[in-house]
Amino acid sequence: MLKAYLGIDVGSISTKGVLIDENREVIRSSYLRTLGRPIEAIKKLVAELFNENKNIEIKGVGTTGSARRLAGVIVGADVIKNEIITHAVAASHFYPEARTIIEIGGQDSKIILLKDGVPIDFAMNTVCAAGTGSFLEHQATRLGIPIEEFGTYALKATSGATIAGRCTVFAESDMIHKAQLGISVEEIIRGLCDAIVRNYLSTVAKGKPIEPLVLFQGGVAANIGVKAAFERALRMQVIVPRYFLVMGAIGAAFLAQDYVQKNLSTKFVGPALLDINFQTKTFECHDCANFCEVVETYKNSQIIDRYGDRCGKWSEINP
Amino acid sequence: MTIGIPRALLYYRYGEFWVHFFKKLDVDIVVSPPTNKKILDQGLKYISSEICLPVKIICGHLDWLKNKVTHVFLPRFVELNGGLYTCPKMIGIVDIARLRFAGQFQLIAPKIKNNFYWAHFWLGLRFTKNPLKVKWALKEASTYLKHTQPPPPNGKPKILLLSHFYNIYDDYISRTIINTFKNQGFTIITKEHLDNKLLTSTKGFAKNIRWVYERELYNAFYYLLPHAQGVCNIISFGCGPDSLISEIMLKEAQARTKPFMQLIIDEHTSPTGLVTRIEAFCEIIKKQCLNIAPITN
Question: Is this model's pTM higher than 0.90 or not?
Answer without folding.
Answer: no
